[in-house]
Design goal:
262 residues, alpha+beta, 5-stranded mixed sheet, 10 strands
């Protein structure tokens, strides 16, 4: 297999030549001739089904003689803001990786603390360098907001380790622009209605002049329920109830819409 220095600039020529001889059956024949037929058989079984002849040969050799695991490094810089996705949309990104040490990484990775919509499109690694594709589908049961959340990429099984043990995978689900604008407008209208409207009605219906600082919504509501404002209080109370029903109806509609889109 050579030393790490032999693999620093790519697959050594000697390894490629050994792969060819293994494919032609020379290594298995040599093992049987020297009394290692059972080991050759079990090594061949371990390598069966591994994609890529070089990766399969790596598994074969490691089964005969354990070697130090190689180390896989993922480009964490490509992950910093790549998975920031508006609610209702999806995105896939490629995370480059490369290998240090002897041999080929053969195994699988998975995501720890990942929500339902955050997935790996391919979990298996069998090459010394390549891309790992990660997808984020916000149509799954995922909370939207301003905070960034984080999962971790880790080794599930294999003959390699990840540089740094765990790779942070930050993700963020943004509220839709239209929904955010509507929320702001509804909040502004409700604020004007509750603070300004109730005071205007009080100015209109109370039998004496009322300073704007004398009343707020809670005071007007209390005075209305205690029948201190007379007939005018009915208008004020009805107004506050209508505004509250509008706000509640909006949030009910929003919840139903989200459920239908899930």
């Amino acid at each position: 297999m050579g030393s790490p220095a032999d693999w620093a600039s790519g697959t050594p020529t000697g390894f490629s030549g050994a792969v060819t001889r293994w494919k032609d059956g020379f290594l298995a024949a040599w093992l049987r001739q020297h009394g290692f037929a059972q080991q050759a058989q079990s090594a061949a079984a371990a390598a069966t089904g591994v994609p890529g002849v070089e990766a399969a040969f790596d598994v074969y050799l490691r089964h005969l003689h354990p070697l130090a695991p190689c180390e896989v490094t993922f480009d964490t810089g490509s992950l910093q803001t790549a998975l920031t996705v508006p609610y209702g949309q999806s995105r896939e990104i490629d995370v480059p990786y490369w290998t240090h040490g002897v041999g080929f990484p053969v195994g699988a990775v998975d995501l720890e603390n990942a929500p339902p919509g955050l997935t790996l499109k391919e979990q298996r690694l069998t090459r010394r360098e390549g891309n790992l594709r990660i997808g984020l589908d916000t149509r799954a049961d995922m909370p939207a907001g301003f905070d960034s959340r984080q999962a971790q990429l880790r080794v599930a099984a294999g003959n390699f380790v990840i540089a740094g043990s765990l790779v942070p995978v930050p993700y963020r689900v943004l509220r839709p622009v239209g929904e955010t604008v509507v929320r702001v407008l509804v909040g502004a209208v409700a604020g004007v209605a509750l603070l300004g409207g109730s005071r205007l009605l009080a100015e209109t219906f109370l039998p004496r002049a009322v300073a704007m600082a004398d009343f707020d919504s809670s005071t007007i509501w209390k005075a209305t329920t205690e029948w201190k404002l007379g007939v005018g209080g009915l208008f004020i109370g009805g107004f506050l109830i209508v505004v509250g029903a509008m706000v509640a109806g909006f949030y009910g509609f929003l919840a139903a819409w989200r459920k239908s889109e899930a």
